[in-house]
From TrEMBL:
It comes from Nonomuraea rosea. Residues 73-131 form the Phosphogluconate dehydrogenase NAD-binding putative C-terminal domain. SUPFAM superfamilies: 6-phosphogluconate dehydrogenase C-terminal domain-like. Residues 12-41 are annotated as: Disordered. This is Phosphogluconate dehydrogenase NAD-binding putative C-terminal domain-containing protein. It holds the Pfam family DUF1932.
Length: 161
C-alpha cells in the first residue's frame, strides 16, 4: 500500500494505491480513498516514487525561490508569482514546460547560469538552480538542429563539469 499524498491535509481521503498479492485485499480501502489496486508487486511504490520526483522537486524549487525572494526583499512578489504559475490548466503548463525546455534550451542554460550567480550574490544556496542549468545542457544535446552558437554554448557547459 502506497500513500500518495499528505495525510494531515487529506485525512481519510488521502489517495492510496495497492499492488502485489495483497492488493486485492486492500482494493476496497484504496478505492474508497481515490486510488486503485494494481497487480504487479511494487507497482504502488513505483508510482509513489514517480510522484516524489515531481512533488519533492517542486517543493525544493519553491523553497529555493522563496529564500531568494526573501534575501532580495521580494518574498511577497515571488510567492504570488509561484502561485500564479501553478494555478490554472495543469496539463497546459506541463506541455509548455516540456516543449519550451527543448525549444529554448540554449538561452535557458545561460539564464540559469546567471540566476545561480545572482543567488550566490544574495548568499542563497542554489543547488536546484544549478541542477536546472545542467538539465538545460542535456536538453541541448537532444535538440535536432544545433547551430554554431549552440555548439559553442554546449562546449562551455561541458567545461563547467
Amino acid at each position: 500500500m502506497a500513500i500518495l499524498g499528505p495525510v494531515p491535509m487529506h485525512g481519510q481521503q488521502v489517495p492510496l494505491l495497492a499492488s502485489g498479492p495483497g492488493g486485492g485485499r486492500d482494493r476496497r480501502a484504496a478505492g474508497r480513498a481515490g486510488g486503485g489496486a494494481r497487480r504487479a508487486p511494487g507497482a504502488a511504490m513505483g508510482r509513489k516514487l514517480l510522484r516524489s520526483v515531481f512533488m519533492k522537486g517542486l517543493a525544493s524549487v519553491v523553497c529555493e525561490a522563496v529564500a531568494a525572494g526573501r534575501a532580495a526583499g521580494d518574498e511577497r512578489w515571488i510567492r504570488a508569482e509561484v502561485a500564479g504559475q501553478l494555478a490554472g490548466d495543469g496539463q497546459a503548463i506541463t506541455d509548455r514546460f516540456l516543449t519550451g525546455t527543448r525549444t529554448h534550451a540554449v538561452r535557458r542554460a545561460q539564464e540559469m547560469r546567471d540566476t545561480g550567480g545572482y543567488l550566490d550574490d544574495l548568499g542563497v544556496p542554489s543547488e536546484i538552480t544549478r541542477a536546472s542549468e545542467i538539465t538545460r545542457a542535456s536538453e541541448i544535446t537532444r535538440a535536432s538542429e544545433i547551430t554554431r552558437a549552440s555548439e559553442q554554448t554546449l562546449v562551455r557547459l561541458a567545461n563547467l563539469s
